Amino acid sequence: MAEKGTVVLGVDPLVIQDHYEIDYRHSYAEDSPFFVGLSKGKLLGSRCTKCGYVYATPRSHCMECGAPTAWHELPLRGSIHTFTTCHYGGEAFLKETPFTLILVEFDGANTLFLSRLKGIKPEAVRIGLPVAARFAKMPSFKVTDVWFEPADPHPPLPPAP
Amino acid sequence: MIGGGITKFAKVHPDKDFRLMVKEAYDYAFREIPRFTKDMIDGAVGSYFSDHFTRQLKAASMVQDYLGLCPKPSKRIEGGGATGGLCFQSAWEAVASGRMNCCVAFGFETMSRVNTWKGNEFIALASDTNFDFPVGGFYSGYYAMMVQRHMHEFGTTVEQMAMVSVKNHANALYNPYAQKAKKLTIKQVRESPMVATPLTMEDICTMSDGAAVCLLASEEVAAKVCERPVRIAGVGSGSDAMRMADRPHGKVILLPHEQESDYAQLKYPGVHSFRGGRTAAKLAYQMAGIRNPMEELSFVELHDAYTSSEIQTYEDLGLCKYGEGGRFVESGSPFMPGIDYGMTLPKQGRLPVNPSGGLLACGHPVGATGLMQAVFAFWQLQGTTNQHLGNPTLQVKNARRGLIHSHAGTGTYITVSILEAV
Ligand SMILES: [Zn+2]
Hints:
Number of strands of chain B: 13
Structural class of chain A: mainly beta
Distance between the termini of chain B: 11 Å
CATH class of the domain at 229-421 in chain B: Alpha Beta
Number of domains of chain A: 1
CATH topology of the domain at 229-421 in chain B: Peroxisomal Thiolase, Chain A, domain 1
Strand content of chain A: 25-35%
Radius of gyration of chain A: 21 Å
Bound molecules: zinc ion
Strand order of the largest sheet of chain B: 1-7-4-2-3
CATH superfamily of the domain at 229-421 in chain B: Thiolase/Chalcone synthase
Largest sheet of chain A: 5 strands, antiparallel
Strand order of the largest sheet of chain A: 8-7-6-9-10
Helix content of chain A: under 10%
Oligomer: heterodimer
Order of helices and strands of chain A: EEHEEEEEEEE
């Protein structure tokens, strides 16, 4: 956009501002049913048709044995495997700080699921806390259409260290 | 290895582009070996991590021509944070296979062209962009979750993590190449701004501009041109699932000095350990004939992008058992002997880890980092640290064998290489 003129940030050495922006045509391809599932209030993992391994994420072939997987509906309640509260983040998420990330454990699944935890003070979060899935009313067809909140709305604070 | 050079790592180098940074490191690598000439080089492997940071595809081709290495063979290696370590091993492969008698490994990164938070976003694009990045893509957050689980499983403490920060920043006071040397206390580390619980600003390495170069040659060429070459005695690498969430919870991969009964209750690797690192170490130890790393290594330069990952890596490398990483640092074992860190360290200096200051203090210009470790290890094993750093403090006495370790996003690629004095 030469007509806009060039922003010069320094002269020795010469430093200019360089802008870059792009839209992608992004396909979720074989993982599409997962994102459609979120819009219907379902969490879809994958179950291996051969060895029975259950992934809490979409994966159309098994990482253990290579066989195809089938969609596996995960329970909408789980517990916190681990967590962190981010006070900084990538530029895209800075305005959302502080936010809490968790890995969720589900009964009957061999692996975990990464999500946001909302509706709780960061200092009350702990490993093992029961959590329940919540879904966006207006889907954006992103993984953030699901997040978790404490299954019990008033979890007790952990004992003081 | 017959030569090595690095530029000073800095927040920003607006007066030098990546070609000139590599050229400086390259010329430095030639300094000690006057009988070595450019026509003895058969090819090169270049490494840089991010096309986003550079916004120049094929940047390694620009370095290749700037160094005057055209039309010799050349390629680029990319593997996230492990880019430099993978590049080193790729150059080793070229020589070990007999394809080349001498191969240059060069690496660089210019991370200063965007602001820190945009930079964090670029780096987070190295996590799954459908499932991980949109949730709040931020590597410090991912590593924070990993160490929360490590603390839960093993009782690791934030004070033990802070000790790593104190150690590496203090070591760097004697390393003029480092970006962020300083004397810290555990209290200061804990009181610095919280980034992702439990990791503070001082638990995390910084972005950096810099370059590093290694010259690798066959034994025949090395004997001809170099008085004190260093042997690459073992290489290994490993990997893990891109999404942390997908990692299994199975059995520990054992090293020769461990037994299954050591870990009867442990579900492995989960998100608390890096099985790619364990695999890399196991393969490198096998090749180098190492049975007990704690007894057989003189020093370690490992990928401490986070204080927590240094503790986790002690365990992956078998310097202590899984679960003992926190107590390992508390014992003082990985500290340098002869430096006053302002704390009581009963076993200070048993096996120095990151004598250079590591990524925490040197900086982490991704494509250069793994090669920087190789250069520091090279100087240690030559016994020339004093000459290159201008003081003898960081020279490990009688350094015979060193380990370098390079690591990519949450443990997706990891390399371990073993270097020996000849
Ligand atoms: Zn299977």
